[in-house]
Amino acid sequence: MATRETVASLSKRLKTFEDEHAIRRCMNRYMYLCDQLNEGFELNDLMRLFTGDAVWEGRGSRYGKTFGCHTGADAIQAMFTKYTLPPAHFETNVHFLTSELIEVQDDEATGGWVLLQTSTFSSGRSQLSSARLNVRFRCEQGEWRISHFQTESLFNRPVTTPWDQPADLPVPE
């Protein structure tokens, strides 16, 4: 028979799992929307993933210089708006997340991921990039949101051909 302590312990563990799932869903939604980020993209869904006082920050010598630091929802939206103006920036953009670490402490959490990004730009150039993401989250009114997003380059490599090629896929005869 379960004691009150056992029920309380299981309830706490269940809440932690649910919070981790919600945080994971927030990050995956962020990456999905960044994959769609292009000319005319509506930013409302993306901006709902951030707290009003959020910080979006490129770190290190490469991403600190390239992206800078943007504090507050208006500044973050202004940064993303550049990607929605003509001419289109991306032809293809796909983000992959791995090596996940999530730690929840009440209504705040930290998450870490390694990102792999395959991009073909409208210019025809392509690139393979990897970054380490360190993200803080805060639960506001029952929703987990990004409160501080940090990205730091691990490597970037130009690719000589676009990622998506029109050639038929090889299949067994």
State the gist of this model.
This protein is an alpha+beta fold and 173 residues long.
Report on the architecture of this protein.
The structure is a single chain. 31% of the residues lie in helices and 43% in strands. It is an alpha+beta fold and 173 residues long. The chain has one domain: Nuclear Transport Factor 2, Chain: A. It has a six-stranded mixed β-sheet. The radius of gyration is 19 Å and the shape is globular. The mean pLDDT is 95.
Secondary structure: elements and pairs:
Blueprint: H1 4-36, H2 44-47, E1 50-59, H3 60-67, E2 69-71, H4 73-81, E3 90-105, E4 108-121, E5 126-140, E6 143-159
Parallel strand pairs: 1-6
Antiparallel strand pairs: 1-2, 3-4, 4-5, 5-6
Structural class, from helix and strand content? Answer: alpha+beta
Task: Could you tell me the CATH topology label.
Answer: Nuclear Transport Factor 2, Chain: A
- Portion of residues within helices: 25-40%
Shape: globular
- The count of β-strands is 6
User: Would you identify the regions where 5 or more consecutive residues have pLDDT less than 50?
Assistant: none
Secondary structure tally, helices:
4
Order of helices and strands: HHEHEHEEEE
Specify the CATH class. Alpha Beta
How many domains? The number is: 1
Largest sheet, in brief, is: 6 strands, mixed
Q: For the record, give the distance between the C-alpha atoms at the N and C termini, rounded to a whole number.
A: 61 Å
Chain-averaged pLDDT? 95
Spatial strand arrangement across the major sheet: 2-1-6-5-4-3
- Please report which band the strand proportion falls in: under 5%, 5-15%, 15-25%, 25-35%, 35-45% or over 45%: 35-45%
Name given to the CATH architecture: Roll
Radius of gyration: 19 Å
